[in-house]
Fold this protein.
Amino acid sequence: MFEQDESKNIDSILIQIWIDLGHGALKGRHPYHTPVLATQGENGPDARTVVLREADFTRRRLISHTDIRSPKVRDLRRHQSVAWLFYDRGGNTQLRILGSARVLHNDERARERWEASAARSRECYRAALAPSTPASSPTPPQPLECGFENFAVIDCQVESVDWLYLQHSGHLRARFTWQDDQWQSSWLAP
Amino acid sequence: MFEQDESKNIDSILIQIWIDLGHGALKGRHPYHTPVLATQGENGPDARTVVLREADFTRRRLISHTDIRSPKVRDLRRHQSVAWLFYDRGGNTQLRILGSARVLHNDERARERWEASAARSRECYRAALAPSTPASSPTPPQPLECGFENFAVIDCQVESVDWLYLQHSGHLRARFTWQDDQWQSSWLAP
């Protein structure tokens, strides 16, 4: 959580953002656990809730998992640019993160993450019907044997972080951009 | 809220969605009050939390307000396609809505909405600095006199609604698309 007495130290805000993102990845009840990921679809933007699986400050990475058959994989293969939206209503904070994402599938890193994931998380990859396929009834057919073949990792390199802190005495907003191999920071008008 | 005994009646789901959106527009504490709006920016998608001001089933409209100086207005003037993401964690429901948005500014409809909006909502349009402008400090300069000149309405016509209901016994998902002057519905694989 952002502490108000840090409001004038812009660099400490970025550290706190990544600490909070790390908590979001680890804790299922954290508001940052389920951000919105926006991609560029064929006819315009698209957006859906995803689960944040990892946030790595030093590598500037945000990681999520998906089904290789889902439409967002097709989007990501055409356009790598993505936007993440994290919103902590209780903490009065919004993060808008832009980055570039690639899809890892059927390789060593995907295998590592598959092995480390919980059995319950793996279940959805066993669905016989690809996500978003039209279906004649809401009841799914028999699941597949394994699921790893459908498991994919969305690996996003972060390029900018836009932080907004809402408060009655006047909102605070700052932007952090990765330029020339370092983070550049600036206050923004909210 | 979605009632489980309606799960087999796909058309009643669409009605309930619009009822819930209507509540979201009216009630500040409703989870649908602050959806994410994704637009297509110059270099990829962008996303931010907005306030839902109106949801009109018969006109298939979702309405939000914004500052005419904000970057999303520039985005919307280039690309009308938008994606909305509504997420009700307690109600286990996600709505993904695609549509086409236009910006109303300085016209009769904008004036009507301005007159009807609360004094506190109008405050932010009086900011002397345009939203997203880099600033040397987090403290804002003196506000403008009025604000109506910066007030704009995002008027979105809905083209499709993707409804996802999360439950342990198997998620439910349905899509509603406006085609041939009516809503077409289909179950989807979650």
